[in-house]
Amino acid sequence: MENKIDLETAGLEFDRFAELMDLEVDPATMDAEDLKGFNDQKRKLVKAIARGALVINAKGEPVYTCQRDDGEPLTLTFREPRGASFMAMDRKKKGEDMGKTYAIMGDMCKVAPVTFANMPQRDLKICTAIMVLFLG
What we know:
This protein has helices at residues 7-20, 32-51, 83-87, 97-109, 114-117, 121-135, and strands at residues 54-56, 62-66, 74-77. The protein is mostly helical. The chain has one domain.
């Protein structure tokens, strides 16, 4: 897939997202494991921004257009998590980690959690990276 914008500009968009959402992204505060995880999530999102599949809106919210199998585009806006987003995980039992993940993402995007359960990995990894950065 050809990039719509260069990686440097995509990196600046990622930085704008992090700033507007007040995310903890200072490498100096991370241990080696956290830094590796952060860099992995950032790399995924910067690539998606460069491709044009992920944009950061004026509020700083990531807006991702999925590459679904059925050909129909699905655009998800990841709103900043609120208390209700975290409470959505409470409805899942201990050990239902993916269910909890999909519940919080569903609340953030205002879609049913099954949206993520039915999503191909190429889209799911971007959505999960966004959520991980919010929860970081």
